[in-house]
Write a structure and sequence with these properties.
The complex is a heterodimer of chains A (about 475) and B (about 220). Helices cover about 70% and strands about 0% of the residues of chain A. With about 475 residues, chain A is mostly helical. The longest helix of chain A has about 35 residues. Chain A is globular. Chain B is mainly alpha-helical. Chain B starts with 8 loop residues before the first helix and ends with a helix. Classes of the chains: A mainly alpha (about 475), B mainly alpha (about 220).
């Protein structure tokens, strides 16, 4: 025993000292009780119904938009030539980007043994899945004939054709579908021990059976844990490259094209940083109300919020560097089209969008250098929303301002979203909120078994601290 | 407290992981097979016609050339469905009282067309030109099969794009000497590869696999 205590002391990195990450006075029983009671309580709080109803009402916007689009075609959107990509692709990139924080938290921070990921990884992964679900609507409907979307996959079809593997749009299909699959597996595997906890604690038979099936016979034996840790680490290893690759491929959708404003080698790192930036903003947007309404301040502590704010600040600076480089390269390249593009962004018809983007994504996050602001919960909530808006504007600026001034002035145009663009966007926000509320009600929003491992007196579990 | 599940469900749980994989792969395989089956393609399915016209009898038995009826095949995109008058060239003299041929005589008397059911029906988004094929060594039977053995007309091929592309990607596998294009019973020689390669050069045939060759 003395030996294992030594190991525990040595192996615990200073950042993972429990008192920062869990409120005082918690033990195994209180953590389990607190988190599982959110799911197992008989009475659903009325606030849950209000939130769910709002989300579900907004979701109907998606149904309206998609039903009418199927009936009329994508002409109901504001996209025209030369702006063939509009809010559909803006929203796609926005949602996919948001998902990245979940994977970063769950996979990369796991491999880097960052103890503070433990209480936020579960709902961040859920956020990833839901964001990917929202994102996937857009490219599928953007094809114009969504019932033929399976043509995007290489399968032995009767046409004797493969998709065009040289097209980044096909890389997108692989990147996003791999991402969705691995994220779903990672999430489910992470839930198995908690399903078993819920199975054991559920009071009514139907819930016992439902959680029991999902727990897949988990008994928590040493052998189970050994296999489990191996599987979880392997999945983390699989998910890690995806954090980088998915948004890199999404950036290729643009960078491979020869449009000024898109054709830039900085796009992959700049997009990945932007994705993590947007994702952490969304994690904060979810975490702050979640800990407030369910009284989880002991588990999602100030330390967590502050760390996320720091990640946001760091990735925000990378994104700012990206904006700077875009402007610099436009000047340094001496290419008249590039120079016109950046000048048009800053002073053209969409100048408000550009400067609002700089305000949201460059100026606003730099206030997080100040510790008092970084540790103020209401301020962090506001900043997280500002960053989400900023990242949406970033995609708007990249897509619309690059396309709307074509090489020939005769093919210049303007873009604005129609009612159906907006109702589709608001609809996916509704879908996201709906899924989040269902998730919080039926699944443990914080990983119970991982929280136990960071409590004082916990045996260090291999690979997970 | 009693267990919620019998311990045998552990096995079921493990099986379900692998079972899901087989289920997905199996479903895909069935889809792929069904899409190529005659149920979908109508390949080899004899169609009902207003008059039970037999190519076996007219081509195989009588030895009538394809072009006697399908007159425009060498000069036009469509091979042409013969007018009733072509039938009456012979049938005003032979079998002129056959009850089976009454719809043909009625058509001739009333000056109305016989409404044949089109068998080899390509989708409307496909541009196909008969003359381009039959003037470059693509025989009738390459696509239409042994019509001299068909009592009632049926598709000899799936008409799916992968079938078209077999020849469009490698025409040397199917091209025959120009003189044998209308030979319904033509059999490719053992050295088809060598012959095909020579003919492809001689006739100036190119592999046409650009989308806009057929989808214009």
């Amino acid at each position: 025993m003395a030996e294992s205590a030594d190991i525990a002391k040595d192996a615990t990195p200073p950042t993972a000292t429990p008192e920062y990450l869990v409120g005082p006075g918690h033990d195994f029983a209180s953590v389990t009780e607190k988190i599982s009671s959110i799911v197992l309580q008989r009475k659903t709080p009325w606030g849950w119904f209000v939130g769910f109803a709002v989300g579900f009402a907004l979701l109907q916007g998606l149904l309206v938009a998609m039903a009418f689009l199927l009936f009329k075609g994508i002409g109901v959107w504001g996209v025209t030539i030369p702006i063939g990509w509009g809010m559909d692709i803006i929203n796609f990139v926005w949602w996919i980007g948001i998902g990245h924080a979940g994977t970063l938290i769950s996979a990369i921070l796991l491999l880097l043994r960052q103890g503070w990921r433990t209480s936020i990884n579960r709902f961040a992964e859920a956020m990833t899945l839901f964001a990917v679900a929202c994102a996937s609507f857009y490219p599928v409907f953007h094809t114009g004939r969504p019932w033929l979307a399976y043509w995007l996959f290489p399968y032995p079809n009767t046409m004797g054709l493969w998709p065009n593997f040289r097209s980044p749009l096909i890389w997108d299909v692989f990147a996003v579908s791999t991402y969705a699959t691995v994220s779903a597996m990672f999430w489910f595997v992470g839930l198995i021990p908690d399903f078993a906890t819920l199975r054991d604690r559920a009071r009514s038979k139907p819930w016992k059976i439902a959680y029991g099936i999902l727990a897949m016979g988990w008994r928590g034996s040493a052998r189970h844990w050994h296999n489990y840790d191996t599987a979880y680490l392997l999945l983390a290893g699989l998910a890690t490259p995806l954090v980088i690759s998915v948004h890199t491929v999404v950036s290729f959708d643009f960078a491979i094209g020869i449009i000024p404003g898109w054709h830039a080698t900085i796009f992959p790192p700049y997009f990945v940083a932007g994705a993590i930036y947007a994702g952490f903003a969304m994690v904060l947007t979810i975490a702050i109300p979640l800990r407030k309404f369910y009284g989880l301040e002991d588990f999602i502590t100030m330390k967590h919020l502050e760390n996320m704010a720091k990640v946001m600040l760091a990735t925000g600076l990378i994104v700012a560097y990206g904006y700077m480089m875009e402007a610099f390269m436009a000047w340094y390249s001496a290419n008249s089209y590039e120079r016109f593009m950046i000048w048009n962004r800053m002073t053209g018809p969409y100048w408000k969008m550009y400067w609002a983007l700089i305000l949201c994504n460059v100026v606003a996050p730099n206030t997080l250098w100040i510790k008092n602001l970084r540790t103020s919960v209401p301020y962090l909530f506001v900043i997280s929303l500002v960053v989400s808006v900023g990242m949406w504007l970033e995609r708007f600026v990249i897509i619309v301002t690059s396309l709307h001034r074509d090489f020939l002035p005769s093919s210049w145009g303007m873009y604005s979203g129609t009612f159906f663009d907006w109702s589709a966007f608001i609809g996916t926000l509704g879908l996201f909120v709906t899924l989040l509320f269902l998730f919080v009600r039926f699944l443990p929003a914080i990983s119970i078994f991982e929280m136990r491992t960071i409590l004082p007196g916990a045996e260090p579990q291999e690979g997970r601290r | 407290m009693s267990q919620t599940f019998h311990h045998s469900t552990n096995t079921l749980s493990k099986l379900s992981i692998f079972g899901a994989l087989f289920l997905v792969v199996g479903a895909l395989w069935v889809t792929v097979e069904v899409n190529r089956s005659p149920y979908v393609t109508q390949e080899g399915v004899a169609r009902e016609q207003p008059v039970p016209f037999s190519h076996q009898h007219h081509v195989g038995g009588m030895g009538i050339d394809c072009r006697y009826c399908h007159t425009s095949v060498e000069v036009s995109a469509t091979a042409g469905i013969p007018p009733t008058k072509t039938c009456m060239n012979c049938h005003s003299q032979i079998w002129s009282n056959s009850p089976m041929l009454e719809p043909v005589r009625a058509s001739f008397r009333n000056d109305t067309s016989i409404e044949w059911t089109k068998v080899n029906d390509l989708p409307d988004f496909v541009y196909f030109d008969h003359s381009a094929h039959v003037n470059r060594g693509v025989g009738c039977s390459t696509c239409h099969g042994r019509v001299d053995r068909m009592p009632l007309m049926a598709q000899a091929a799936s008409l799916q794009m992968e079938w078209c592309l077999q020849c469009h990607r490698q025409p040397e596998r199917y091209v025959r000497p120009q003189a044998a294009v209308f030979d319904a019973a033509y059999e490719p020689p053992a050295d088809q590869r060598a012959l095909g390669s020579r003919l492809v050069k001689e006739y100036g045939i190119h592999t046409r696999t650009s989308c806009s060759t057929c989808h214009r």
